[in-house]
């Protein structure tokens, strides 16, 4: 135990378990020694001193006091209760302390070793303060009032120089401090752990509370939303309801979910929670992944519905969406795979069009509304089954009626004939959903391109604008749009016109001779509407949308060059050039008739005889002006024809010279082949190889006449080329009647027949015989008649001669008709009828009651060519 006593553990300040026998240490010596900075129990210390003995700095006081004191007997218990530690100061004291320690009954080794961790905190704190903590002021000043400058700056008491001469004590003090430090650290760790545990528990509790609060809040908000929606309707009629709403809005009065349902029920207003709207752009927007090209649109839709596949529309990959492009298509409707237009060449997103006033739906202007025959629309209904899905055989579809709840039993999910309803839905989406935008073209002004894909025959955009009468249309063209280059006029129903100058984006869709869209008209809810639909090939993202304008040029002035750039381009917007005359003539007929009708005031269709001199004069004036106009048109037509013929002549000349060259080449090669063959056969090989010898050998052979060999061929070729040259000269100069340049040479339209002496390889072949040359020469005659008919010499009707004379009379200047002007009613009528008849024959169309000068403007419900939807261009002459 003695060695143990010298050990650091003996310096433990934890005295609770230490019992020290102090009876033997009444000697004041012990009290003389400065108390080490430990709480080793003093062996002799008065009660007073013991009160302050817990501080090392009290040692001098103890020392001072103990000097005169007499040892007082102390019981073991008393000493322990007083707990007045006092460390020995000197070796003697130490020794005596050791000896006294011999009487110590128990030591808590753990405590002495500083490893006990369960020492009561209160006790520890009280005693550690003495050792470790920085002393408080009260500590620094001892009871005697002198400053404790012996306190070590790290908080440990520093023994006086006279007191610290004992290294053991010094060491003890240090060790005590270290032990205390260790205990403190371990205790701190414990405290931290405990604090952490507490924090976690507290956090969990808070989280639970928060969750509960959140749930309550959520219910409250939902309830408020519902009740607000319900009440807002009744707000105006019932103010008390508003009060209730406000009350309900208070979170504190949030009802339970059951209450919710009860309250929502009466109003039957259910506010749906908002769903996330995905931006549908990128590859294949609008294209369904599981689209099966073999099935119709409706069947596809049905299939999708039955499958209930949730389709990821964001960037579907070509492996899904492009499948139908790669598969064998039974309908042979192929499309090239294309990357979206702006993947590598981004375009300006928005083209701003000046002066375009948008209209989203048709609007009647002026008299149009009054004149619109609403009861004209016949009702149509279908009896399709859900399996049919209002497909190809749907009666409404066939009749160009859109299905709706009134004429179709199917629901909108099962019915496939509701394109305008689909469009309405789509229009609510974003612009990618809507799927079209204005673009700028290189040489055709603005155009429209797709920003998504469209299935074959899928609706794209409505053609809507102002619905105007023909009279209004004429007025606008004459005055308002006089200087315009583009017109946005479309023939419509009831002989009216949609003027999309103020209208939808569809007005910017350009013409193409090989279009990818179609303009169709449907009756929707009893009213006709027009829209652009995808063609049978469908539309890919980025494609420019086009349709065939089927342009009615209205006047030869307005025939426009087509720049669609397709292989089968007709060269002009509208019908083929040879149909121009038909159109202009029919326009003249219609115009003349209209004017005469106006003068006569008769009902449409018939021209009755004028019965007043005034009317007669008027009709005569009209007839004259119409004559002048007709002449003008004919002159224009002739000019156009001339131009076409000139082009054709140039083209023919090119062909002829090419063929001549080819024939010459073939003749020469044949000749040389024959010569070579002969040389080879007749001459020895070395001679043939010798350059010097070869001319001689040829000469030799030439001099040998062979009947029917070279001479006739030479002559024929020379003659043929002479004939060709002559033909070309004729074609270039005098003769203008040749086929148009772009007439395709198909089996159905052979370029030449036996009576057509144009220069071809066959004619050249026939020219190889001298006997046929004469025939070829004689057969040559102008071709123009066969291709482009002259209005003054029309071959279109069987009674050519009669028509010719009629036309000549009609078209000829008055002087040629003996300056006779029609003066009587009969003669006027005769003249008009004759001219009308003649013109009709000329153009080969007899469209009775064609109307007011617009061919095909009657729309779909009219007879004749009225079933054609046409764009209209230009003003009447
Ligand atoms: C209905 S607008 C079409 C939109 C027009 N490009 C624009 O910029 O407003 C019809 C006019 O466009 C032009 N156009 C349309 N397609 C054309 C084509 N294939 N070739 C030449 N011009 C065309 C013609 O000037 C025509 O009169």
Question: TL;DR of this structure?
Answer:
The chain is mainly α.
How would you describe this structure in keywords?
single chain; 877 residues; mainly alpha; five-stranded mixed sheet; three-stranded antiparallel sheet; 30 helices; elongated; binds S-adenosylmethionine
Task: Draw up the topology in text.
Blueprint: H1 2-6, H2 28-32, H3 47-51, H4 59-66, H5 76-82, H6 91-101, H7 109-113, H8 121-131, H9 137-140, H10 167-234, H11 239-249, H12 257-267, H13 297-307, H14 318-321, H15 323-326, E1 357-358, E2 363-364, H16 368-371, H17 395-398, H18 419-427, H19 431-434, E3 436-440, E4 446-450, E5 459-463, E6 466-468, H20 470-480, E7 489-491, E8 497-499, E9 502-503, E10 510-511, E11 517-524, E12 527-534, E13 546-547, H21 580-600, H22 613-682, H23 685-689, H24 693-703, H25 710-732, H26 761-766, H27 770-779, H28 784-787, H29 800-811, H30 825-843, E14 871-872
Parallel strand pairs: 1-9, 2-6, 10-13
Antiparallel strand pairs: 3-4, 5-12, 6-8, 7-8, 7-14, 11-12
The chain binds S-adenosylmethionine.
